[in-house]
Amino acid sequence: MLPPGDLMGIYELPVIASSRETVRPCKSPVVGPDFLQGDCTKARQKLNWKPRVTFDELVREMVDADVELMRNNPNA
């Protein structure tokens, strides 16, 4: 997975994830760095790579996959 280059605060991930109707908001604090930024410049330049999904779409896709996994296998 390559980052699209968007600036994203680490605290935005649980907000985006909990915006899904099937996900309960996170009650425990996020522990880790306050700021992360990936750089996809090399992939853009050398491979002519462009992101196909936004960060929000990626988070929603991951949450949906986890929800589906838990529906099919609650002990996963």
From TrEMBL:
The coiled-coil segments of this chain are: none
- The species this protein was found in: Hirundo rustica rustica
Q: Under which name does UniProt file this protein? A: NAD(P)-binding domain-containing protein
Which residues does the UniProt record annotate as the domain NAD(P)-binding?
31-62
Return one GO MF term.
catalytic activity
